[in-house]
Every structure is written in structure tokens, then in C-alpha cells.
Design goal:
Blueprint (H helix, E strand, L loop, with lengths): L5 E2 L8 H14 L7 H14 L4 E4 L2 H12 L4 E4 L5 H8 L4 E4 L22 E5 L10 H10 L3 E5 L7 E2 L2 E2 L6 E5 L12 E5 L5 H8 L3 E3 L2 E2 L10 H11 L2 H19 L5 E3 L2 H4 L9 E5 L1 H4 L3 H10 L2 E2 L24 H9 E4 L7 H18 L1
Parallel strand pairs: 1-15, 3-4, 3-5, 5-6, 6-9
Antiparallel strand pairs: 2-10, 7-8, 9-10, 11-12, 13-14, 14-16
The chain binds ligand T4K.
């Protein structure tokens, strides 16, 4: 039995001295939040890294979604995926919008673009897909549908930092894309987020909604909350951004190693998103599907048994949003067969920068051990 806990993820930590160098600057500036110097520096760095003209840094990814919805003036119904974290759906309902759920594809677990059009009504104002786990949606087809029906598109790209095509970030797709910079993400600012938007004219709105709806010192034109990124978050962002390529490369190596090992176990399926899309992959998560008939263990039993080996996997994303206590009555008649099936089989195995090949060997051997006991 492994003495140390292996959790599903762990934040990337730069060296303490690098971070402290920036903390010292914060002390010297006596400026800790509200568009401070490090916020501005980080904004510029990201601007260059993403090659994005318009971006709005926020205190977390959820606020970025909220601000995007408000800035685009969405209302009525928005077509979205049920296979996501609570944040995506809650951002809509908290803005008095009705989420309309579209099923997902078995191949990559993103929204099934072939089923979007049949859900469009005269109340639909937008489509909000999720690049779940960093797997890229079919952005071309979604763009075509949106144009045809005059709909806006917001991508929840919370998991997709570092995903690119031809040197361009995936965040340049849609009217708005948002990232999460939470500690559990591939790139983090402790808590944090960012919205990248197409229309430059939206800048005053994004800025206002981030800061209580304040347009200028004496003009409060909108109803907004507080979603400002502070200087300590920006400092973490500045330091961590330097490591981005290294982080993705390390995670890629670990992912390839996992795949090699898991090939040997019948009943466990993993994804190879880089083969399914013209976008690159950032190796943000390592989701597997458990086939109970072949593995002889259910997903839930595997999850529980692995805990006995000190391996803490997560059922991202189970339950489906439509089965949440707060939504299940409203959506009890909605049919989402693929999402339902996937949510019963999905399990995310540990993946993070500091994970070692020995840890993966240990996880693999733990699964074999569990399998042996039931056989
Ligand atoms: N859209 C999507 C599709 C999202 O997945 C998310 C967030 C959002 C929007 C909203 O973005 P944010 O507003 O969060 O920026 C975690 C994250 O808190 C959440 O950001 C993330 N998605 C979600 C998928 O995962 P929990 O409740 O599972 O986190 P927690 O605290 O259980 O942590 C998971 C594991 O990470 C733990 O087992 C231990 C490890 N951990 C965690 C933290 C915070 C550490 O080792 N150190 C740490 O500091 O939600």
C-alpha cells in the first residue's frame, strides 16, 4: 500500500523564490487589487501568449462565464451540454436563462453538433458548448449553425488553456471563450479566469460587469458584481505562464505512459483527442470509461476500491447536470442517452505535473489487484 495519497490532481507550484519575488513587488507597490501593476503585466503577457486582442481577466472562471452572458445580453434559452461541471449551467440559470440540453458524442464527449439545430426555438439566443477535458468541440460546424440561426456562441473552455491550431488559441473561437485558472487546472492563478471576446465594442461592458457595473466614477449603468483578479493571483499567473510548454510536455509524456499501461487492461477505454481534432490537445485530464462487463468491476466499485490503495480518482462529470437535485424535476423528461451512459462509466485518473511514472505503475497495479480479487 502506497503511503502517500495520490489525488486526481495537484496544482503546479513554481519555486517559492520566484513567487516571492513578485510578492515583494506587491508589498513595495502597496497595490493589492483593482487593476494593479501586476494585473496589467499579466494582462499583456496573456494578450501575447493567446494572440487575443480582447480579453478580460476575472477572479475565477465562473465569473468569466457570468460576465460573458451579461455582456452579450443573452436571454430566453441557450443550448448547452449536460456533461459538464455545475458552473456552466448555473451561470445560465443565475442569469434567468433556460438551459436546453443537447446530447454529447461518444467519440470525444463534447456536444453533438448534429443535434443542435433540432433544439433551436424562437427563444434561443445562444449556444454554450464545453471543450470538456480540453477535447475540442467541432467549432466549424457550431459556427455554421450559429451564423445560420443568428445565435451567439460562448465556449466554456475552462479546461482548454494551451489548446491551439496553427499557433492560434482555441479561445479565439465563438463570440466569447472563457478559461478557468483554478488551482486544479493545467494553468492556474490560484483562483482565476479569463474571457476572450471577438467584438472590441464589448470592452466597456466586460469591464463594467467585472466591477459592480461601474462604467466611470460617476456612471453606474449596469447591475454587476465583483469579479476582479487581485495582484497575488496575477503574480502566480506571471510566474506560471513561463512553464506552460514544459507543463504540457510533461503531461503528454505521462498520458502516453498511462495509455501504454492501460492498453493491457480489457474493459478500460481512454481517449486520444489529438487524433480526433485538428486542434492540439493539452493533456488536461485523463478520463477513462469503465466497461463493467469486461472489467468485471463497476465504475463505482473501482472508484471506491482505489481509495483503499490511497488513489483518489474523481467521477467528473457524474451526476449529469439534469440529475442534480436543483434541476432534476425540470428536466425529468429530457432524453440524453449518450450523456447518461457516459456519466455512469466515466472516471478521471490522477494526472498532474508532479505525478511520476512510478505513480502510474502503482495505479495500474492497484487496478490489476482489484480486478484479481473479483475474478
Ligand atoms: N466550467 C467548467 C467546465 C469547469 O470545470 C469549471 C471548474 C468552471 C467552469 C468554473 O471555473 P472556476 O470558477 O472554478 O475557475 C474542481 C475545481 O474547483 C473547479 O475549478 C473545476 N471546474 C472542477 C472540475 O474541479 P472540485 O470540487 O472537484 O475540487 P476539489 O477541491 O475537490 O479538488 C480536486 C482535487 O484537487 C482534490 O482531490 C485535491 C486537489 N487539490 C485541490 C486544490 C484546490 C490540491 O491538491 N490542491 C488544491 O489547492 O472542483
Amino acid at each position: 500500500m502506497n503511503k502517500k495519497e495520490i489525488t486526481v490532481t495537484k496544482p503546479f507550484m513554481p519555486t517559492l523564490s520566484e513567487y516571492l519575488e513578485y510578492v515583494e513587488k506587491i508589498w513595495n507597490n502597496s497595490w493589492v487589487t483593482n487593476k494593479g501593476p501586476l494585473f496589467k503585466e499579466f494582462h499583456l503577457l496573456l494578450h501575447d501568449y493567446l494572440k487575443a486582442d480582447n480579453l478580460c481577466l476575472t477572479v475565477n472562471g465562473h465569473s468569466a462565464l457570468d460576465i460573458a452572458i451579461k455582456s452579450l445580453g443573452l436571454s430566453g434559452e441557450v443550448i448547452t451540454t449536460p456533461f459538464t461541471f455545475a458552473s456552466t449551467t448555473h451561470a445560465l440559470t443565475m442569469n434567468q436563462i433556460t438551459p436546453v440540453f443537447c446530447d454529447i458524442k461518444e467519440s470525444d464527449l463534447t456536444i453533438d453538433e448534429s443535434k443542435i439545430e433540432e433544439l433551436i426555438t424562437d427563444k434561443t439566443t445562444a449556444i454554450m458548448p464545453v471543450h470538456v477535458y480540453g477535447h475540442s468541440c467541432n467549432t466549424e460546424e457550431i459556427e455554421r449553425i450559429a451564423k445560420k440561426h443568428h445565435l451567439k456562441v460562448i465556449y466554456d473552455a475552462a479546461h482548454s488553456f494551451g489548446v491551439q491550431r496553427d499557433g492560434q488559441s482555441i479561445a479565439l473561437c465563438g463570440d466569447v471563450s472563457i478559461f478557468s485558472f483554478h488551482a486544479t487546472k493545467i494553468f492556474h492563478t490560484i483562483e482565476g479566469g479569463c474571457a476572450i471576446y471577438r467584438d472590441k465594442n464589448l470592452e466597456p461592458l466586460f469591464n463594467a460587469f467585472r466591477n459592480f457595473g461601474i462604467y466611470s466614477e460617476e456612471e453606474i449603468n449596469y447591475i454587476g458584481g465583483n469579479a476582479k483578479m487581485n495582484e497575488f493571483q496575477a503574480a502566480m499567473g506571471i510566474v506560471n505562464l513561463k512553464y506552460m510548454d514544459e507543463i504540457i510536455q510533461k503531461r503528454k509524456k505521462l498520458t502516453l505512459y498511462y495509455r501504454k499501461k492501460l492498453n493491457l487492461i480489457e474493459g478500460i477505454q481512454y481517449f486520444v483527442p489529438e487524433k480526433l481534432s485538428t486542434y492540439s490537445y493539452n493533456y488536461a485530464y485523463f478520463p477513462i470509461l469503465v466497461d463493467e462487463n469486461k472489467l468485471k468491476i463497476s465504475r463505482d466499485d473501482l472508484y471506491e476500491e482505489l481509495k483503499k490503495f490511497n488513489v483518489y480518482t474523481r467521477k467528473y462529470f457524474y451526476p449529469l447536470v439534469t440529475d442534480f437535485g436543483c434541476y432534476k424535476e425540470q428536466y425529468k423528461d429530457v432524453s440524453l442517452p449518450v450523456a447518461k451512459k457516459i456519466s455512469q462509466q466515466i472516471l478521471c485518473l490522477p494526472l498532474y505535473y508532479d505525478l511520476s511514472y512510478e505513480d502510474i505503475d502503482y495505479i495500474y497495479e492497484s487496478i490489476l489487484e482489484i480486478k484479481k480479487v473479483v475474478e
